[in-house]
Write the structure tokens for this entry.
Amino acid sequence: MKTPSFSATKAAEIRIVRRSPAYWRVTFDLPPLNIFGPENFPQLNAVVTELETDAHVKVVVFESAIEGFFLTHYNFLAKLEDTTNVPPGTTGLQALPDMLVRLSRAPVVSIASIRGRATGVGSELALASDMRFASREKAILSHFEVGAGLVPGGGPMARLPRLIGRGRALEVLLGADDIPGDLAELYGYVNRSFPDADLDGFVDALAIRIASFDKQTILETKRLVNVASLPADIEIAAEWDALLASIVRPAAQERIKKLLEFGLHKPGDVENQLGYYVAQLEG
Amino acid sequence: MKTPSFSATKAAEIRIVRRSPAYWRVTFDLPPLNIFGPENFPQLNAVVTELETDAHVKVVVFESAIEGFFLTHYNFLAKLEDTTNVPPGTTGLQALPDMLVRLSRAPVVSIASIRGRATGVGSELALASDMRFASREKAILSHFEVGAGLVPGGGPMARLPRLIGRGRALEVLLGADDIPGDLAELYGYVNRSFPDADLDGFVDALAIRIASFDKQTILETKRLVNVASLPADIEIAAEWDALLASIVRPAAQERIKKLLEFGLHKPGDVENQLGYYVAQLEG
Amino acid sequence: MKTPSFSATKAAEIRIVRRSPAYWRVTFDLPPLNIFGPENFPQLNAVVTELETDAHVKVVVFESAIEGFFLTHYNFLAKLEDTTNVPPGTTGLQALPDMLVRLSRAPVVSIASIRGRATGVGSELALASDMRFASREKAILSHFEVGAGLVPGGGPMARLPRLIGRGRALEVLLGADDIPGDLAELYGYVNRSFPDADLDGFVDALAIRIASFDKQTILETKRLVNVASLPADIEIAAEWDALLASIVRPAAQERIKKLLEFGLHKPGDVENQLGYYVAQLEG
């Protein structure tokens, strides 16, 4: 096992653990809530770059070290300029959507192992991954954004309808409610949900299995699936623009302010039941 | 609550009830069977136009006031010219497909709450809606048309494969059989089916929830989902042309004649079990 | 019932049985394992050509006469030239993908009734069919190819993501494991799985039902579904090219050699549990 190539302090938050040269795990460890913000861009970018360029890695599992949170919403306390002033990535997209579309195209199999909340950007990372498996008892997927006056920005309008169909995608996005593991499986939002005790074993066995296959065969097969299934970058770009436009409107400003007053960004009910709280903001 | 703006007599058949300025319900009340025909075009058009233009409505629920029928097949007793002589709508499509594609794009969330049969045009209206929820015991979705010698004309060949996949779409369309609520859920034809006693409560809570969100955020998010999921109008136009061409062929004329002799258009077995009866017409 | 028009000896292996002029069954009977290779191209081509050109056939059911195998992987003992030297078909594609895309577009409803393994080319034929129904206890669908160092070549990267979504398609293709009937139903890989005792009755009733409908109505409806759901031929062509390129690479050569040493191509564990064995080949 090697430590990743970025600085030790930051490495602790989004860290690569190499089970083998072919099988990596990436752990989100941003206490107390796995909130992701512009301060984490360099870390995620380093991970995606290693996945794109390492000659040996075949499979990566994304998981959380934080009880209750796989990876949750964006950091609303960060200054907007910290997000918008980051130069575009190699795809020409802004930093966050750039990293997500690169992950989808990376020559490596990415698996999101979801225990706890995958909300907003957490769901977007899961959707940008190749596969998603969820804890039946402990996973919550959600796009709460519309409830907060925000247009989601990292790909779900492009990805969810193609994955689960227009009707269920609109329910997830416009209902903005918490989706537990079982329902996520029924909808195809995750590949499958497992009893919590079985999730790690299943994902580990699948990753070990894939890691035993030939890398070129994997990447050529994935590349052809990409042709049939990935949205065009322009659709993701349009989402990001719509998100940025929505953030500065009064609806979002007022709703996010109320959520923060209720307790957003602090451990407790609002973070644990965001789907409930976004429906308590009107008027 | 206001009454809709079209004439009182017709308003009774397809009527808007405003639970609030943001949350409307549209009730189909065309006794005895909720058969929809060209005589109902102006009513549905008025509803769609209000949904497109009202500044406050955010969510609309379509439901039925007729026991056993959400909205069923087209009116086969109407003269063909009553359908074909209606001028095209604003999309350039013929009247019925025009209204359906406008509903799909309307800046409002549409939810079909399906209890009873959603057959033919009833299924097409449900498929043109953003989401569909069904009574487990009382919902029947179906496209019986191929069994009657008709090519379906209001969008299902374009919409169903994108929603539920090619294989299940072909089964629904070419099998032409009744699909109960549970199977519709398994196939993704509806978002979910609920025990009949729970359907109204779920749909109402979801609608109230969405009605509490910001309208601009809803419509921008939906617009981006539309990009990823709506068929091009030309596909719907091609279906309508194929339907009109099929109606005048002997196969349809003979099959519809037999169905009418068996009891189509009258309360009873044929209307209740249309999937069964279309398979009794050969020879 | 008529015998098919190709030679009696070969006819026995892939044979048409006409239940009626409108309802045909095609039986795969290539003992002992229903392995399909270039030697079977003329037989399958004759079947597809008859389905394309017969004026009366409306529905065809594909089934197996071999216990445990619907139709399994390609013949690895055949010389590569026997596959590559066959002239392209009428679509311009190479022989096998040509037959598969023609089946998908044929003016007849094709139903795969899957009992036993549908692996590799067997799954590709099932996916090229219009619908798939599976025995809950006895069906296994799989794409083992990546595990053998091969890029699948007959359409699954184009078809599976459109049918079951990107995430589950990547799991099937890159996990390369056996998918039992129940999971295939959950994923939408098959329309439905049935208790083994019910499969034949369901499929037969559906086929009889469809055979009672009007052929022109069926084919026009299917043609419009095709527009919405079939991949472009170029995607299938790219898969075939990728398969041929992969076969001659060391990864595939070594892995296929090991599988043959383990017992591939002979009745027994390797053929019965190919998903397990492809994960035992590393190093």
The first strand of chain A starts at residue 14 and ends at 18. The radius of gyration of chain A is 18 Å.
